[in-house]
Amino acid sequence: MSDPILQLSGVKTDIAQYHILHGVDLTVPRGQVTMLLGRNGAGKTTTLRSIMGLWRPRAGSIHFDGTDIAGLAPPQIAQRGIGFVPEDMGIFADLTVEENLILAAISGPIRRDRLDWVFRAFPALSTFWKMPAGNLSGGQKQMLAIARAVIEKRGLYLIDEPSKGLAPAIVSTMARALKDLKSDGASILMVEQNFSLARALGDHAAVMDEGRIVWTGAMAELAADAALQERLMGLKMEVA
Amino acid sequence: MTLSTEHAPEHAPKMARLSLSERLQPWLPVLLVPALVLAGYLMISSPSSWLTLTVSGLAMGMMIFVIASGMTLVFGLMDVINFGHGAFVSFGAFVGVSVLLVLSGMTGAPSLLLNLLAVGAAMLAAMAVTGVLGLGFERIIVRPVYGSHLKQILVTMGGLIVAEQLIHVIWGGEEIFIGRPEMLKGSVTVFGATLEKYRLVAVGLGLVLFVIMRAVLRNTKLGLIVRAGVENPEMVQAMGYHIRRVFVLVFVAGSALAGLGGVMWALYQEMITAHMGMEIMILVFIVVIIGGLGSVEGCFIGALLVGLMQNYTAFLEPKLALISNIALMVAILMWRPQGMMPVIKAK
Predict the structure, then answer these.
(1) Which pLDDT band holds residue B1 (cuts at 50, 70, 90)?
(2) What is the pLDDT of residue A173?
(3) Which of A110, A117, A130, B342 has the most C-beta neighbours closer than 10 Å?
(4) Which chain B residues are closer than 8 Å to A137 by Cβ?
């Protein structure tokens, strides 16, 4: 495995009186796509939110690019170069598509080349550029959520279920955009329930269960082994 | 940047032209103001009285807007119910009136420039003092009770009582009467209607403040952060912005605006008391609620409706004046339960 951009060691996170993460150990290699898989309630979203500082870990360390970011506030973590696409997309409905992207460009004006890429990947965003984001369809909102994360180059992208609730045609649009991002050498940690998408994009996989990582390895290895999938995730997936 | 894509997605958005009623839908609250003005015209037999009452209602509405605008943003941005907002109105009025009394030579001179300079100085002093008070109020009173509405109501109400008592200590327990500056006294006659000069100035000042506030919220990055923060503060933080710092800034600005509104209200009523802030808070709450929590545009329209309704009803049926705005609130909430222009909050 290449040089890691993100390393979690023994991360424990509580939400109110519930222990959600029971010591997560995870390594995300630089320049590759790591899929975080597992049953509902396994702790995948909590892991991403803990990395972002939105739920502060009770114990453990989170090293991003060599620095421990556990305990930092979300803005400090984002400013270090982590882009976040939450499960609910986090779109600002009252702001236009343009305003959403201006806000996402935290270091200054939007760079032309990044905007060109966004428009090529998601033409709907240029069509509805001046429209309130709340008027977009579900698929267009997801496009905007990803566009906001990639409008500036970040060291790591955390993407939580980008295909959730989307029609197949839009999922394939999303997949192509994410493949382009991957071919640009982006480091991505993605939660995904759509196994076909996970298999198409992922270099590595980490499977969670009951707040812990229970398996890590190559995505291809997991995709090829139906018995392993059933044991780890309780479901028999389509085998490549 | 080496990203490239040759793929045009299959997903092609279908566009259909909106019908007239769909296009008018977002503007309906805005149309309420001319509708109310027209209703007033039809119900008040004398056009000159109608014009006088309309200007008076607009002036009152503008002052309420200045006071309420900061409060609605504080409410929307951090979900903080600040019953102590009225304290800044009272403090602003007392500071402003004190400055005007000191500058009585300027206010008494028959020079519009000197009069406006004195009023400007009073407003700036009031805004500076209430801004600093707001900073202390947020740090000492509001910050420990984030996330708990009941505690916020109790603690900020306590803060309001303390502030009123401080005014009694500093300025005494009696009301203070303040005359308007020389050139702002009296009225002008337009189309046979008598329009008080000060009310025209208040309308102009309120409009200018609304335009500035809207420009800041629409055209600056700080404005975008505030608008986005009202909707989803967590996401704003995850994008790299310190929402707490923005909130403090908004709280201070809102307090300063309340102080400015206090000076305007003092010159409108020509008398100030320590509890004037608490009294006006009823109208302020109505405006914030019917406008839609966190919406500056909604707050502006709500304030104009409240001001006009109060003046028209007081003329037509004085006994109903007290309940007219409550009735307005009930009617608007039955039509739009989240206010006229609600900000869509993230779950």
Answers:
(1) very low
(2) 86
(3) A117
(4) 13
CB-CB under 8 Å, A184 with B1? yes
The reported pLDDT for the residue numbered A169 is 82
Q: Mark which residues 133-162 of A lie under 8 Å from B by CB.
A: 134, 137, 139-140, 148, 153
Which pair of structure tokens corresponds to residue B150? 């009941």
Largest CA distance in chain A: 50
Does residue B229 sit within a domain? yes
Residue A51 C-alpha, separation from nearest chain B C-alpha, in angstroms: 11
Domain boundaries, chain A: 4-81+154-233, 92-153
Residues, chain A: 240
Window A:100-119, CB contacts with B under 8 Å: 102-104, 106, 111, 113-114, 117
pLDDT, one tens digit per residue, over A101-122 is 999 999 989 999 999 999 998 9
In a domain, B144, yes or no: yes
Tell me if B224 is assigned to some domain: yes
The answer to whether the CB of A82 falls within 8 A of the CB of A186 is: no
Q: Is A96 exposed, middle or buried (0-12, 13-18, 19+ CB in 10 A)?
A: middle
With 80 as the cut, is the pLDDT of residue B324 above it?
A: yes
Task: Please say if the pLDDT value at position B17 is more than 80.
Answer: no
The CA distance from B239 to the nearest CA of chain A, in Å, is 6
> Are B224 and A103 within 8 A, CB to CB?
yes
Q: Distances from the Cα of A15 to the Cαs of A42, A57, A76, A101, in angstroms?
A: 14, 10, 21, 31
Q: What integer pLDDT is reported at residue A170 of this predicted model?
A: 85
For residue B346, tell me if it sits in a domain: no
Phi/psi of residue A21, nearest 5 degrees? -100, 130
Question: Is the pLDDT confidence value at B180 over 80?
Answer: yes
A224–B contact, CB cutoff 8 A: no
pLDDT in tens, B137-156: 999 999 898 888 899 999 99
CATH code: domain of residue B180: 1.10.3470
pLDDT score at B11: 45
H helices present in chain B, as ranges? 20-24, 28-43, 47-78, 85-102, 104-108, 112-137, 149-171, 197-219, 221-231, 233-238, 243-269, 276-291, 296-316, 321-335
CATH of segment(s) A4-81+154-233: 3.40.50.300
Domain ranges, residue B122: 66-335
Q: Which residues of B touch A128 (CB under 8 A)?
A: 13
Give mean pLDDT, residues B210-230. Answer: 92
Interface of B with A (CB under 8 A): 1-5, 7-11, 13, 15, 221, 224-225, 227-228, 231-232, 234-243, 343-344, 346-347
pLDDT, one tens digit per residue, over B233-252 is 999 999 999 998 999 999 99
Cβ-contact A75, B242 below 8 angstroms? yes
Q: Which residues of chain B neighbour A170 with C-beta distances below 8 Å?
A: 9, 11
Q: Do A73 and B7 touch (CB under 8 A)?
A: no
Q: Which residues pair with A159 in a beta bridge?
A: A85, A190
